[in-house]
Amino acid sequence: MPLTLPATAALGILEFTWIWNDYLWALILIQSDKYKPVTLGLVNLQGQWITTWNVMAAGSIIAAVIPLAVFLIFQRYFIEGLTVGSVKG
Predict the structure, then answer these.
(1) Which pairs with CB-CB distance under 8 Å and at least 24 residues apart come from 3-12?
(2) Of 16, 56, 62, 88, which is least packed with CB atoms within 10 Å of its CB?
């Protein structure tokens, strides 16, 4: 199990990022606005005739902080997981 820790951590980071940015499943399955993820909230800021791009840009940056923090915390495991088995010795 200790040998699989870097690979499992790299997979966990990638899965967290993919789930965090998931748009389609949330759009189809979640009906209540209370439980919708950040990506759908950003889409709801866009109107039919006018869009406040500065608010959407600020919301996008705020939404990107969490995955960036997770990556920075587990960066060592992510790099080890990508390079495991690539070097002999």
Answers:
(1) 3/84, 5/77, 6/77, 6/78, 6/80, 6/81, 6/84, 7/81, 7/84, 8/81, 9/74, 9/77, 9/78, 9/80, 9/81, 10/77, 10/78, 10/80, 10/81, 10/82, 11/81, 12/74
(2) 88
